[in-house]
Amino acid sequence: MTADPVRSILIAGGGTAGWMAAAALSKLLAQHHCRITLVESDEIGTVGVGEATIPPIQLFNKLLGVDEREFVAATQGTFKLGIEFVGWRREGQRYFHPFGRYGDDFGPTAFHQHWLRARALGNTTPLDAWSLNHQAAYRDRFEIPTPQSPRVFSTFSWAYHFDASLYARYLRCLAEARGVERIEGWIADVVLRPGDGFVDHIILADGRTLAADLFLDCTGFRGLLTEALGTGYDDWTRWLPCDRALAVPCARTGDPEPFTRSTARTAGWQWRIPLQHRTGNGHVYCSGAISADEAAATLLANLAGAREGDPRLLRFTTGRRRKAWHRNVVALGLASGFLEPLESTSIHLIQTGISKLLSWFPDRHCDPRLADEYNRQADAEMEAIRDFLVLHYWANERDEPFWRQCAAMTIPDSLAAKVAMFRANGRLIERPHDLFHEASWLAVLLGQGVDPAAHDPLADTLAPQELAAVLAGMCQVIDQAAAAMPSHQAFIDRHCRAGARTAMPLAR
Ligand SMILES: Cc1cc2nc3c(=O)[nH]c(=O)nc-3n(C[C@H](O)[C@H](O)[C@H](O)COP(=O)(O)OP(=O)(O)OC[C@H]3O[C@@H](n4cnc5c(N)ncnc54)[C@H](O)[C@@H]3O)c2cc1C
């Protein structure tokens, strides 16, 4: 039992980061008699984007006790089986980054090593044929496996698309039901304690002051509290050169596909995120290469349905805060840095930030060793994601100046080592803080044209006929499993159609 426990937490900001933190901490610190207050300004609003996720969000939902179908219905959500990349290697080419795994490991080496050997023996079937996620996605199929589902579903995985503002509202309901107090107000000043430089209190524009033992900076790109501590920022634009996004929703034109689409453009890329009530679109681009008008024209010329409003411009600098946790302030969400939305990793980083905070939870004195370890882990996580994102930009064969410049960049040594190993023998180096594992790296390496010259010699142990039979058998099982799923839309209609279920959650 610590003598001087944290008795009050102030969360500054009520976007996705603020409300995720409020919902999680109010549940997990329920026995700690710790007051949690969230202050946000409706006048300032939230960034309003951030609608695609990756599978670990399921763990966050479980932690909160969220009913998956209720959550999807309440947020106008759909299911996401992966990301389709269009034109990233070169114009006209496309590939799919599936969640879940390719095939099932057998024999002494990884599945893809057997596939590489089969390919060397003349088998022309693409690796995609062994991904249940890929097979389901391109047939617009989806279902949530049950304990009775065939074993092949152990290779299947999914995440969600949702309306960002409905997601924040959903989390707010959970948090307020668990005792979080919300204060409407504009933070005008951050006051530091003389002596140790901890944040003592914040002052709102109407003069109210709010003090706490621990502060979570969830104020988005502004990073108000973190800036007050002057921790500095690592700028990664030399590797991730996009610095603007224009976002605009459009009307739905058909059934929502169970995947995000990312289409390369002249100096960036365009996203398409299908929701139940509309489709989210955005153009992420490099302002040094094209103007905002050109970027807007490209975005609007490539919408599937009628636009709903005018494109909204967002400015950012890719990179991270030097210290996400400093003194008694922990920055979460955009306040802690932003890598860009290409692989939908920001909401995930909020989630891991919360779980790291709980692992290293301080007392009122905030031992700097806790912050150091938190920051060390956060840095490693971000660097691993950065490398994965950089791969998409660097390994391209496109012909525009922006893309040629990307292809000519000096990539981080950690990424160069991974690429060199894969090129030589198809092996994938995994590091402890890697968020993306074998299947993700395989999809993007092969999709971007990084091809191994050889395979693991341990894959040579099977006789060619035996290898062919095992691969064909797996392929058939996957094909049948995908074909037997209901359509994505039918699944939504049956289980989680917006409006057909309780609109907002009950705290469990
Ligand atoms: C173009 C783009 C696309 C993205 N796409 C994805 C995606 O697909 N998937 C994904 O995981 N992530 C995505 N992200 C990131 C994602 O949007 C954010 O991680 C997420 O929304 C969390 O934002 P936030 O809560 O940190 O900030 P915000 O949403 O900006 O919230 C900040 C909060 O702080 C409050 N605030 C700020 N200043 C003050 C003040 N002075 N006084 C009082 N309150 C204040 C605001 O009112 C607001 O409540 C994307 C980001 C961008 C820019």
Mean pLDDT: 96
The bound ligands are: flavin-adenine dinucleotide
What is the helix content? 25-40%
Number of helices: 15
Q: List low-confidence stretches.
A: none
Number of domains as seen in the coordinates: 3
* Total beta strands: 21
Can you tell me the CATH architecture of the largest domain?
3-Layer(bba) Sandwich
Distance between the termini: 27 Å
Instruction: Trace the largest sheet across and list its strands.
Output: 5-4-14-15-16-13-17
Strand-pairing-aware structural class: alpha+beta
Pfam families: Trp_halogenase
Organism: Sphingomonas agrestis
Protein name: Tryptophan halogenase family protein
Concise overview:
This protein has 508 residues and is α+β, with helices and mostly antiparallel strands. 34% of the residues lie in helices and 19% in strands. The chain contains 15 helices and 21 strands.
